[in-house]
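Good morning C.,

I know you're traveling, so I'll keep this short. The sequence:
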Amino acid sequence: MRTRIKICGIGSAEEAAMAAGAGAAALGYVSHMPSGRGTLPDPAIATLVRTAPRGCATVLLTAETSAAAISAHIRRTGASTVQVVAHIDPAEAARLATLEPAVRRVQAIHVEGEDALDLIAPYAPHIDAFLLDSGRPSRDPNDLGGTGRTHDWAVSARFVAASPRPVWLAGGLDAANVGRAIARVRPHGVDLYSGVRTGGALDAAKLAAFVAAVAGADRGPVRAAVPSRRAARTLAAY
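The tokens, ready to paste straight into the viewer:
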């Protein structure tokens, strides 16, 4: 298995081209957020989505919490995938699947403790993939990722093992720790923002080092593991 890479916070066509050229499978565009960095207004996201490199998923990060509002946000930007950063009502996730069946839907789960595992069953029937992040919404409803913090990878590993959907890992990843993260968690993909940036701008050297570290981890024996049959059915989530 090859670990997919998503570069988040894409802010220009040049950054999109750099990320795609390095091998990123997905490009993340961050809309208005109560927390996080690298945000863009919707018209700018729409322009970047239209001009995104071929072969890359375009991922809208939205803080909207109702199916109707998320659907409207998707349509304003034209993204192929939506990442819902808040723990929305699972009933809204079900409605979104009905409203936007052609858009890949990713539910962020903020790993604050073992109770993150309890969120698999309510969401899994309605989404294409999970993304594990390090927000702390139980302490602050506005803390929804983009923190640069890692979380408990032991919980994340249990989440991956139990999930019927592919799982992306985010939160404080960089070239120095992504190999350990992949070995511990065995995610479908990895997602990062600050770990490949300098002064907020995508850094070609850091990006190359990160991609090389992921490739090195993929060559290790850990990636020889076969995914569960349930997860394998949706491995091409994005």
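Safe travels,
E.
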